[in-house]
Design a protein that fits this description.
Layout (H helix, E strand, L loop, with lengths): L33 H21 L4 H14 L6 H16 L9 H32 L3 E2 L2 E2 L11 H20 L5 H23 L14 H28 L5 H28 L2 H4 L13 H9 L2 H10 L5 H13 L2 H21 L7 H11 L5
Helix pairs in contact: 1-2, 1-4, 3-4, 3-7, 4-5, 4-7, 6-7, 7-8, 8-13, 8-14, 11-12, 13-14
């Protein structure tokens, strides 16, 4: 396993530059406005705790929930949350002339975009807290998982539920009187269910007499990825920004936005699967456990597609078992099949395909956002 020995350096596909340009004005690429984001988080946390106190929760319980929020919600890259803001910015900018000043309504929407962005980050915190318990992970974002703290333990599962419930309290407070409130609530509910279904597919126990290797196929993998990762990581924040902008849309634009979001999500998860084994845990911020957890990983699915009978037997013998020797045996098969090189080619091909879809996107699709997100995640190291 990655934590038991030195991690291999991730191969670089080639030295060419990505032809997509990254817009430095996008907030998810820069630390600018971080004070405003931090202030918005503190306001929302205070809103949640005040709400709980009014429901009758005592001060010690409210204090614990505040500590839980601070431990599990901030601290990530904030990419998902900032995507809401940047999508709003692109659509609002497109709807006014270059010489027109930023209106007070635009400023108000910017504030609301940060609120929605933190709602997405609350959802991310919920999913990560529960996922860490289910996977028995050790670290998250460079520190012990929430459930690993002695004073938390299995109660972390309920804490995840509290984070999810907080989203809808915030939505009601800030958007309850808006014309698109129902659309926001329905979108969150839909994406939450989709992600839960993806988590279920990713966590269904195998038969007690051994792993069911028939589950490890490309079709099943892509379905898990779309439900577990793509909808909430990319489609949700971008769609929230579009709803908040109230910009006109078409069925074609919506379908293309969804298609690009799912393609980015699939690439993102393939990268995650690769980094789980091949990246240094200190760089990644967590210790990879996909092999011992018997995950339907891109690495395993790809290996099975090209493995010899002897290599398949080796994977059957060692995959899904704890211990350095089992992880090392699986990695030996991966290395012998050239998976690092296959991954590099796959990443380049996915990049080219997404570029082509962006170039042919109809009006109403936030193409600047998709171009820059692709540039940011392409060849990422963590």
């Amino acid at each position: 396993m990655a934590e038991d020995g030195p991690a291999a350096k991730r191969p670089c596909p080639d030295d060419r530059r990505n032809p997509l340009s990254v817009d430095p004005a996008l907030s998810f690429l820069a630390a600018r406005d971080q004070e405003e984001w931090n202030a918005t988080y503190e306001t929302l946390k205070a809103d949640v705790l005040t709400d709980l106190a009014e429901l009758g929760m005592d001060a010690p319980e409210c204090s614990r929930i505040g500590k839980m929020m601070d431990y599990t919600v901030p601290g990530g890259k904030l990419m998902r949350g900032r995507l809401v803001f940047d999508t709003l910015e692109e659509m609002m900018t497109n709807s006014r002339t270059a010489a027109a000043p930023v209106s007070s309504e635009h400023d108000r929407k910017r504030m609301l975009a940060r609120v929605l962005g933190w709602c997405v980050e609350l959802l991310q915190g919920c999913f990560l807290v529960v996922d860490d318990v289910m996977d028995q992970s050790i670290t998250r974002r460079g520190k012990p998982c929430w459930y690993k703290l002695p004073e938390v333990g299995p109660a972390a599962i309920n804490d995840g539920c509290i984070l999810r419930s907080a989203i809808f309290r915030i939505l009601r407070k800030y958007f309850g009187s808006s014309s698109y409130y129902v659309s926001l609530v329905e979108l969150f509910n839909e994406v939450i269910l989709q992600t839960e279904l993806g988590q279920m597919m990713d966590s269904i126990p195998h038969p007690t007499n051994g792993l069911d290797f028939s589950r490890f196929n490309v079709s099943n993998y892509r379905q898990i990825v779309r439900f577990k990762t793509a909808y909430y990581s990319f489609y949700l924040p971008i769609r929230l920004g579009l709803i908040l902008s109230e910009a006109p849309s078409t069925p074609e634009a919506h379908a293309t936005t969804l298609r690009l979001s799912l393609a980015l999500g699939e690439l993102f998860q393939v990268q995650d699967d690769f980094l789980d084994l091949y990246q240094d845990p200190d760089v990644l911020g967590k210790i990879g456990t996909d092999i011992e957890d018997a995950k339907c990983s891109w690495l395993l699915v790809t290996a099975l597609a090209g493995a010899s009978p002897e290599q398949r037997d080796m994977l059957r013998e060692h995959y899904g078992k704890s211990g350095h020797s089992h992880g090392a045996a699986v990695r030996l098969v991966y290395d012998s099949l050239g998976l690092p090189e296959i991954f590099a080619r796959h990443e380049n091909e996915a990049h080219a395909s997404i570029c082509a879809t962006i170039d042919s996107a109809p009006p109403g699709v936030p193409v600047r956002i998709f171009r820059s997100v692709l540039q940011v995640i392409f060849r990422r190291q963590k």
